[in-house]
Amino acid sequence: MKENPVSSLPGIPFLLAVIAVAVVSVWLVATGIGPDPDNLGVASGASILGGLLLGALSFLSLIGLYKVEPNQAAVLSLFGRYVGTVKTDGLRWNNPFFSKKKISLRVRNFESGKLKVNELDGSPIEIAAVIVWQVQDSAEAVYNVDDYESFVHIQSESALRAMATSYPYDQHEEGQLSLRSHAAEISLHLLNELQERLADAGVQMLDARISHLAYAPEIAQAMLQRQQANAIIAARTRIVAGAVGMVEMALAELQKNGVVQLDEERKAAMVSNLLVVLCGERSTQPIVNAGTLY
C-alpha cells in the first residue's frame, strides 16, 4: 500500500465557524424556552429543536479537528479503509468520521545492543552499530507492518548479524575486506542490507555505522597476542628489507668509487656486520681492530 496525499481544510477558520454556529444554537434554545406571550408553542418547539440540532452538528464537527506538527503526518482511514495522508502542519479539519493516526517523519537514530556473533573465520566477536532512519511512506509504515519501530530494531540486529558473519575481523590477505580495516565498505554493505529488509515498511535508511567492534572476552587475550605477533613480523620484515637495500647500496657505492677492494669473504663479513647493526634491537658497540683482519 502506497502513500496517498489527501487535502484538508484549515482548522482555525473552521473552528471560528463552529463557534459561531454554537452561539446561534444557544440563542435559539434560549429563545425557545423563554416567555411566550403570544402562546406560539409550535414556534418555540421548532426553535429549541433547531438549536439542539445546530449544537449537535457543531459538537460533531469539532471531532474532525486535529493538529499536525512539522515533520509529522496524519494517516486517515474511514471504517478500516485507508483514505489518505495529510502532511500540512497546523490545525486541520477533515471528515469527523475519519480515524487519524499520527506518524513522525523526523530523523531518528538508535544504537543496537552489543551482539555476540561468529565472524567469517569462526572467531566470536562483539559488534554494535548506530542506525539512522526515518519514515518515508506513512501508509506502508502503518499498514504493512504491525509495529514499524519494533520492526526496524529487530531487522537492524538481524542485518548486523548477517553482515558480521560475511567478513573476517582482521585482514589476512592483500585486498581482502575485513570488519576492522574497511569501515566505509562495511558500513555501505550494512546500509544496503538494511534498506532491502526495511523497504516494505516505508522506512528509509540514512546511515549505518559500526560503533563497537571487539573480540569476545574469552578469546580477546589470545587474539591480542596474535595481533602483536603479526605486528612484530610485519615490522621485522620491513626492517630486514630496508637493511638489505642499504647493504646493497653501500657495497655498490664502495665498488663504484673504488674506496676498497673486497673479496667474497670480506664482503660476506661486511654484510653480516651491517645486518647486525641495522637489524638489531639494541645499539651496537664498535670494536676497533688494531691488527690485521686475520
UniProtKB/TrEMBL annotation:
Record's subcellular location: Membrane
Residues making up the signal peptide according to the UniProt record: none
Protein biosynthesis is among the record's keywords: no
Organism: Thermomonas fusca
Keyword Transmembrane: yes
Segments forming domain Band: 63-227
Protein keywords: Membrane, Transmembrane, Transmembrane helix
InterPro entries attached to this UniProt entry: Band_7, Band_7/SPFH_dom_sf
Protein name: SPFH domain-containing protein
Transmembrane region(s): 12-30, 42-66
Membrane topology, from the record: Single-pass membrane protein
